[in-house]
Amino acid sequence: MSEPHNGHIPPATWDARTDPDKALLLCSGSVDSILKAGGLPISISITETTLLVEESSILNPLIAENFMLTGRRIYLAFGKLPPSLRIPVVRLGILLLKNGADVRILTWPWNHGETLGAALTSQKGKGTPSQRLMFYCGDSDRSLELRRILVKSDLEQVELELLRAKLKAPLLEQLCRDFARPLGVSAQTLKTDITEDEQFRFMANQVAAMEVEAWEIPVVGLELFSELVAVINRHILIGSDQLTTVVLWTAMTHLVDDDQAIDILPILHVRSATKRCGKTTLLRLIQDFAHRGLSSNNITGAAIFRVVELFRPTLLMDEVDTWLSRNSDAIGILNSGHTKDDAFVFRSHGPGIIRYRTWCPKLLSSIGRLSEFAARVEALTDRTIGIELHQRLNTDRELDRLFNSKKENPEQFIRLRRQLKRWIIDNVDSIKDHRPELPPGLNDREIDNWRTMLAIADTVGGPWPNAARDAAVALSTGDNSPDSELLLLLSAIRRAFNARSGTTFLATNDLLPIINAQNGEQPLTREKLASILKPLGVKPRQRWDGDGKTQVRGYALADLEPVFRSHLV
After folding, report:
1. Taking Cα atoms as reference points, which of 282, 210, 207 lies closest to residue 249?
2. Res. 264: pLDDT tops 90
3. Helical H runs in 99-186?
4. Three-state DSSP class for residue 500
5. CB count, 10 Å around CB of 56?
6. Least confident of 49-63, 115-129, 310-324
């Protein structure tokens, strides 16, 4: 390749572009005096944009595509940097490191000259220009000394540059450690801020893509809801109660921007006992129809309240069984977002305190129930409506059908979301003023969770009022409710004692098979049984076995009877 028409790159530098053993000097000002000094003829004079694409974190293709950077030592020599050049030089250093270069900061006594060329020819220095240059290079600092040109006010800009660069984890961690002190933060804080910013920017773009205008003309609710049912049924096999719940909950998400329309937002929990049950397909369908649907397979607590504060999306959090148990902050934030008046968290920011909203519709998807993989979730479980999907042989076909449908007829999915938004706008007053008749058997929290969805069903009319109440009863009295789980357990224990008339003590080994015969696919262990009964004041005791030779652990009827009286009819 012939020499480029670029006055900043000398011929000797261009000829050595593929030789990583030859060091490269990047400096401001003219390179003439540097070349005359000898000893380091491979030099490039740059301005703010010579090596960078302006307002971008990529190297100029002239350099990136022609120069071998991996393993090459590169000196950055810029003297006293004005504010306008400080961040571009840091950006350049970060990108050179990303490309495998050994980046060094070249320094010299400032009274010798503001540029390297001036310092080499200054009368104040000792030795020949070539000797001075070799001395400066030998005294150069390692790449971590990029921090020497930073000041505290650069924090936001440096975070942005590190975010834009999309560095691999080891290099990001190294630079966070290097930059933390001059920026006035800890390395962990810097890394966390960058990680959360990356999540936040991705989410912001996704939310913007899901925003739509309401349909231009009024919509017939019964026809709209019937079409939603048909589309979901076409892509996934799901029970009627679960499907009714999904459609009503999705419609409810469009109420969130009206502060007077809804006071309680139940979390929808989509769960299954195993993989390949269609959870991901269902989440994608809900995202297509919900209000500003935003999906994530992992999200920090800070990212939750930041994105909710700005966009109030419908948060669809998949695979929570893989990350929620390690994120107690996220559990607290999810709990806080159930009731509108309490949907806030407070976080310190510098010298002050900032209040963030956590009010938005939320969906969790997992393998297993929340209590199986996350501690301290009783309050969170109480705020959910759970639907369970079962394994299907055609899960991959479901995903393929959904992909093909959206590819062949993308307008249908956007139209349905726009029509659902329009229907909610036209009927919001009827929904919020309606006092639905409540089905029997729901506890107070379940009534709170279902009230708005029942009002939506009554407003739609047709089969929806009865279907909604059937779903409320079916899904609220099953194992989704911690209270119901406890009552079922206590009932099983009482039946075990009643079946053995006159028995005042049952060994745990005798009790567990009786309980698990009724508990189905999630058998209790002795440790789990003890942990459930402990808050009720019931602990296992030791008794001599019938032969009087061995001791066994179990439960005394005298300890359990007060609990039976207070919890069971």
Report:
1. 282
2. yes
3. 116-121, 129-138, 155-165, 169-183
4. coil
5. 11
6. 49-63
